[in-house]
Amino acid sequence: MSGGVVTEIGTGLDRSGEPVIDCAGGFLLPGFVDGHLHMAQWALSRRRIDVTSAASASETVDAVVAAVRSGGPMSTGVVRAQGFRGAMWDEQPHKDMLESALPGRRVAITSMDLHTAWLSPSLLSDLGIDDPTGVFRDQYAIEVCSGIDDRIDNDLLDSYILDSTDVLAAQGVTGVIDFEYDDNAAAWTRRIAHRRPSVRVSASTWPVWLDEALELGRRTGDVVPGTDGLLRVGPLKVMADGSLNTRTACCHDPYPDSEDGEEHGLLLVEFAELVELITKARAGGLAPAVHAIGDRANTIVLDAFEAAASTTPGTGGRIEHAQQLRPEDVKRFARAGVVASVQPQHCVTDRDVADALWAGRRSIAFPYGSLHASGADLQFGSDAPVSPPNPRAAIADAVWRTDDGRPPWTASESLPLDVAIRAACGGRASVEVGSVADLVVLAENPRDLGNSDLRNVPIVATVADGRLTYS
To answer: Where is the Amidohydrolase domain (predicted)?
Structure first.
């Protein structure tokens, strides 16, 4: 390797003067790329109270109380918990439940999918928010949590995030696309000035920072100056709908037993505004990446990509998640040159919720096999902290469609192993002379492994930009 590029591959190479890594006969792959995560939220979630096992709102509160009594984690004086899945709960979260259990305490609990934030009255008062329930969803939840996290000292947050890049390297990850709700290019420039991260970073832009990014001439794929080539401009992130577990993913068919006037979920951006954002971003050189989970949201987003293509040269962009699609929309991804950025771990963790809320519909849930058969470009991510950033598990979930011993869920939508590996490696199929020296060595050939063994096959070494980042 030289200059971050692979220069020779083979046996009997001249090793004089070069460091040698003993990979013990491991299997070489292009480095894994996590194509969708939230770095600050993931780094912070590793220091929050874990309530993923709670089966109700009351159990969630009990878990938080138990952690507080045992000296659980605090952040800027706020009790922070994360991980509940409330889609199937009979009892709805409410601020009064937190006040009764922890009177006067500032408490914020975030759902596993990051689309719901549940705050105590004291924290609401501290933030200057008057809300009858203390429960916020979708973009409001993101903004509320951002306001809480903004109180964390930048130096401390940056240290958490940079340490987390070392954890990613231990999972074989060499690059990420960070969709954190922040001015990501500026934040990562600051971090890289402090110390070199163990992964390359592609920094997304949200609409609130779009005009500034365009004025600065930022174009997707460009290296950000002063970052030693480790930071590139990423896509524009737009939210089109909510999430499955929050029952706000926008669907053609209504959710069962909905009585709140939002039986089809929520569309978070009007069609005309979405077309305008896509057009404006493309004209300035930013690739659009639009969050769309429900089938109606995906239909509308594909319509918007096609409408924008009629006025702006070029095609392409990304749909983040694409969890539910009508059959006629599947083939539109390849036709429009739109990447399906998917998170296979969601497929297995949400199978029961999807069966309960999306049953009996014409649309396909987590249609990876159909997308691949139609010629769509699939790229994998974790959406961490929603799922752990473990690309081996993502590959196994895409191939076997089960992670708990149950039969495969909708096995017809499974992917061939080679296709799943390529999607987990950011679209790279092999390592060749001239390739970027972003590499991972597994202890065994994944083609020789079953479902469980693939998830746990050891990472022998990770190399990013020609540097050993994990061994």
So the answer is: 20-470
